[in-house]
Amino acid sequence: MKRFMTTAATALILSTAAYAEQHTGGVFADYSADTAVDLYASDLLGARIYASENAVEGYEPGDEGEWDDLGEINDMIMNPDGSVQVVILGIGGFLGVGERDVAIQMSDLQIVRDGDDATDYFLVVQANREMIEGAPEFSRGMNAAGMEKAEMNEGDAEKVEMTDNAVSTDASADTNTAAATAAAGAGAAAGAAATAPAEAQMPEKEGEVEVESEMESEVEAEAAEVEVEAEEAMAETENAAEEAMTETENAAEEVVVETQDAAQDAEMAVEGEMNETEMAAEGAMDNAERDLLVAPEIEREGFGSVEMNELTTEDLTGTRVYGPEDEDVGEISELILSEDGKQIEKAVIDVGGFLGMGEHSVAVTLEELRILRAEDGGDFRIYINSSKEALEAQPEYEN
């Protein structure tokens, strides 16, 4: 199990005692970074943070596969004493769209080491999906000048609204006054018509008609203005609704893309695991088709045993293989490496044949072979606890 550190403050903040020991006078310190514990703030910015539902008490290779990738650190907030108070983490979103910032206490951040180098670590917090979805969004806030400006803007908006209301009220009053005046004029005209001769009434009626026409024109003009304003307000509302609908559709499309990508990743992971399982099964079947041999305990004068980690593929390829009685049983034609290419898993022995024709190939593990090397570092001799005839009876290896 590799080293594990849970106190993030020790990686970022020097204690008072440690600082005093390396303080050489003035404002400059004679300090050398300790790669075992010290971290650079520049390394944390952009670093990924993972969430684990259970407490992380140690690290084993592959543990990170059980954690959820929350996002990356966008910023950090420092206390006046220079210590890190919180880190600002961007979570959610796709390619930076729809991302929101949340704050995580530095004391809750665990640094899980997976190597000896200072940069070999994972940043982990203990949180479940409910806590992540309910995390409050981080707000950067405003200073005093910003607050004053915001209040002024709000005051200006109120003044504009009051002015609009006043204009609307004045327009309504004007309309009502005009209507009342028109009604009064009509009443007076009717009274005059009842008492005057028919010939005298005609000019007065014509004047009344002209006044009424002017009033009606004014009312109609004001009504037209109100109708235009209403249409403009309706258009603005429709545009806002269309923009909101477009944003909702874009967000839905992004969710669909993320879901498809996640499904594709999961499918690829399953296929990779299936391939590994199939390869392991094929290897087990190859070994199950024959009984493994025991390497012979053989010693030869002028030769000594050799460790497998001291050998190369060139040392073994083309080397003759002998039985327990030094009879020549074949030759190593090729070596089979592990999947990561770091180890030799099997050696293929070509048995019998003539000039490369009619040979019978058998794949054996290195544990079945006894490999000796001349004491002067020259020739190799490889022994197997089998005869030529017994090897020819083994299942044949096929590429």
Please tell me about this protein's structure:
The protein has 399 residues and is of the alpha+beta class. It has three domains: 9-133, PRC-barrel domain (SH3 type barrels, Roll), CATH 2.30.30.240; 144-268, no CATH class; 303-392, PRC-barrel domain (SH3 type barrels). 43% of the residues lie in helices and 20% in strands. It has eight helices and 13 strands. The chain has helices at 9-12, 16-22, 41-44, 129-133, 144-195, 198-288, 313-316, 388-392, and strands at residues 48-52, 68-78, 84-91, 100-105, 110-113, 121-126, 303-305, 320-322, 328-337, 344-351, 360-365, 369-374, 380-384. The strands form two sheets. Strands 7-12-13-8-9-10-11 form a seven-stranded mixed β-sheet. A six-stranded mixed β-sheet has the order 4-3-2-1-6-5, with no helix packed on it. The chain is elongated, with a radius of gyration of 45 Å. The two termini are 39 Å apart.
